[in-house]
Amino acid sequence: MIYQRSSQLFAEAEKVIPGGVNSPVRAFKAVGGTPIFVKSAKGAYLYDEDGNRLIDYINSWGPMILGHAYEPVVEALTERAKLGTSFGMPTELETKIAALAVAMVPNIDKIRFVNSGTEACMSAIRLARGFTKRDKIIKFAGCYHGHSDSFLIAAGSGLSTFGVPNSPGVTEGTAKDTLLARYNDLENVSALIAANPNEIAAIIVEPVAGNMGCVPPLNGFLEGLRELCSANGILLIFDEVMTGFRLAAGGVQELYGIQADIVCFGKVIGGGLPVGAFAAREEIMNYLAPLGPVYQAGTLSGNPLAMAAGLAMLEALNNDRAVFQRLEEKTAYLEVGIRKVLTENGIFFTINRVGSMISVHFDAEPVVDFQSAAKGDNATFKKFFHGLLQEGIYIAPSAYETWFITDALTYEDLDVTIQAIDKVSKTF
Ligand code: PMP
Predict the structure, then answer these.
(1) Which amino acid residue places its CA nearest to atom 13 of ligand 1?
(2) Mean pLDDT to the nearest integer, 401-413
(3) What residues are labeled active site?
(4) What CA–CA distance (Å, rounded) separates 102 from 95?
(5) Which ligand 1 atom sits nearest the alpha carbon of residue 121?
(6) Is 3.90.1110.10 the CATH classification of the domain at 71-319?
(7) What are phi and psi of 250, to 5 degrees?
(8) Domain spans in the chain, listed from the N-terminal domain onward
């Protein structure tokens, strides 16, 4: 496949946009080459500026769980746009999506909408600090919770891709309140709590991690966090920006039956528009302005276009709960197929998967935390990525990202993908 026009467009973009992109991982820095410029997308496919069709395994990094340009979302948006695109005043639509989200997700009474996953996590932490009257938080190495200052400490995703554990511009004062733990290591968390008695406001965790590739919680890890939080007056924050409305209608809380105190959302909840949200039981949410003392606001929060897209998406998922089982089956089929061809071709690999989140690590050891994720062979990953691109298959341009499977994928698409992986892995 030829990516000539994409290269030209990237060269033009680089002149006026830092690195040519508005979010770093899009830049192909980890894998080399130039990014693909998209012209349009429909269902499981991307159509690029060179006229290539690509099978999409990123799906806008998660939101397009039912495929691109999903008709009910497109219709809701078109109808809504005619009525005005922003008012900065309440609309009935906001209550409708809030009520539906609260009905779908366990343990939440109220939800507040923001414009991104970053904002959701940032606000959740502020709320937790205000509510507990404590300053420190615990986060896990390799987990990404957006780019607000408190979280840019050993974050996964782009920070791992580019090898910058901490970003310049985050002050030492901020960094000292973020304590770092190893994912899947309860003893490490216990020790941090013991060393900082009555100082920790919250533990924030990706309950299934997706920013160091996909890393599932080991048996007992989330249960252990719940117990430690309850015993020490700490709020447990599930960052379900990736997992929410994807792994189950009620997210990881439903999937594993574990109760979080605050839940953060993004991606699927906005149907492909810029939306994030955070939610909790009433007692915690009433701590927010205008009811309570913790301030949080947004000119475009609850924007009618964003809410219309999000509502159409949540309604589609809520009315067809079988979608989660279909996604499980499709992704399991892909997993089995990839395992078979990589094994036959003598490749060292580990595949991690939970539901429709899956990733291939090029290392034979189990991947359970950031350290083990970082052992993956990046040279092999680069060959894998570019080989698949030539075959018309688009996966995330970094080994530290998960793939997001969409229900728009057919079994034929999956077979084509497995055959391409067979072909490409023979060249490693
Ligand atoms: N939390 C998690 C788990 C994420 O994966 C991301 C983004 N990939 C974020 C938060 C930040 O969301 P956004 O990019 O919408 O700010």
Answers:
(1) 117
(2) 98
(3) 144, 239, 267
(4) 10
(5) 10
(6) no
(7) -100, 15
(8) 1-14+24-56, 71-319
